[in-house]
Design goal:
Chain lengths: 305, 319
Amino acid sequence: MITAVNVSRWYGQVIGVNDINCEIGPGITALLGMNGAGKTTLIRLITGQLRPTTGELRVFGLEPFANPEVYRRMGYCPEIDNFYEHYNGREFVRYLARLDGMNAKEAARRTDEVIDMVGMTERAGKKIAGYSKGMRQRIKLAQAMLHDPDLILLDEPLNGLDPVGRREFMDLLGDLANRGKAILVSSHILFEVEQMTRSLLLLHRGRLLATGDLGIIRSLIDKHPHQIRIDTDEPRRAAELLAGLPNIVSMKFDRAGDSIQLEVREPSAFYDALQDAILDKNLAIRGFSSPDNNLESVFKYLVES
Amino acid sequence: MASPIADLTYRNYDGPLEPPINRWWAIAKLSMKLSMKKKGFWVWASFSTFWYAILLIIFYVNETLVTSAGPVGQKASIFNTISWKDQFLNAFNESQLFLFILALLMGAGTIANDNRAKALLVYLSKPCTKLDYVIGKWLGIFVPMTLVTAAPTVIFYFYCLMSYRSYGFWSQDPWLILKLCGMILLPGICYSSISLAISSMFQQGRLAGGVFAGLYFITYFITAAMNGAYVSITMNNNEAPSIVKNLFYCSVDGIQNAMAKILLHTNGSTQIPIPGQGGQAKFQVPEPSTLVFVPAFFLICGLSVLIAWSQIRAVEVVR
């Protein structure tokens, strides 16, 4: 749905995004990066509110800049949320439904429907000025879903939502993704993103550091061996049994004496060998975990490199 | 019976979507709705009709009290010498300040508030273009402003048509209604264009309003000064230089006055119909040149809209 080829955008002397190459298809894709990494610039390029300085960006095969044909199939939920404060949520969404091209009757019907989907039915009659951050996020998402778009872009959508709201939001986004829609979620709150998707676009200082599945990206980071933690009552015996395996870089015991932490290269080969090395030797193992096989670690490794 | 647990699952929309044309109307309607929700709109709109009310009182007093108590022929001396179209011109000029306040109320924040709220991020990600947005916002000021100007003018016209035909209301200018139709469009065109341009340049409605008010009153000062100069020169029975006459019309107020005089084809006459001198025009700055002021009016309005169009962008771009 979205194809970027060597896309760059400068703001005068400042680089917004630099030489971005990526493809985004159906499903949830997380756009990650620290503040100022270029996430919002990339979203604004995709939503056609900025034109790339160089490179080619296509959305549904069309140039998105000021292109209503693209906007008909796109929903955008920006980060800002101080819209018409003296309007109530329902009026605001209905007005945007008219801008989407619905007649008055359809706009009213669909407005009620999307407001229901984001759980705002009872509060939609109140003025936006009195809304909490979470309520504003819901109303923004409602307006983005009005015209049943194929692509939805959400800029920091989980900010201000309570835990239940986040769960509901994530479920709704998952529901949308399951219907074949492309959802691009920008965020810098990694653990939340991780609960939504494993598909990433990782930006740092305007450059695309990595794109694709989190697991694949992690496996490609050779500089940092994978950490594996084995919980056992006999950590020293486990160390003795594992010492012979070729992929182990280092081992250390934790202070409590009930686990061992390994640094391993090629973890899949390690796991294959693990069966013969310890599981067949009657060593009681309570659990395995991989502390750095998560988004935060991947993000940290990539940014540090 | 609906489930007590809310259904938050996604539901598709399969209803009709109109092609991305005429989105400006949705924007215009919202702007109008916002304006008409303000109490100030109705207050100032009412005030803008005050001159017609004064005229009606004068006519009523003249018709009833003066005729019954005053000398014979008093009534006839006012109505027989009155210039009817000048009464509309005077009412138009007198309403200018209130129409300006209305424009300030409706127009100053129309784009500036959207800029501040960054609402353009959302609007311009919908299938509507910058042009839709500008047209919508322009109409959002133009339509209410024109209605406010038109309502008292049309009512007064038909009242006079029914009551004063025998005093030349119809015969003086049978085409007056058409000319008035042109005149009532002027404040809408002028104020919506200028306020849109100023509003588009700011992030805050109040700031835009301040600049708009500054422009109005500074240029109004020029008009007032030239009027004073013109009257003092004419009182000495000298011919005022053309620069004084032209500068008189070089204000937000003045250019509309010029256009109204051109449309009604009159030099104007005294504000209050004076018995026996209803058509006195000695101290009125005469009708300006059509060739200069008509193009100037449309150029100013067109440029203002162009400024607004060029200023509108969803995101602030650092150059």
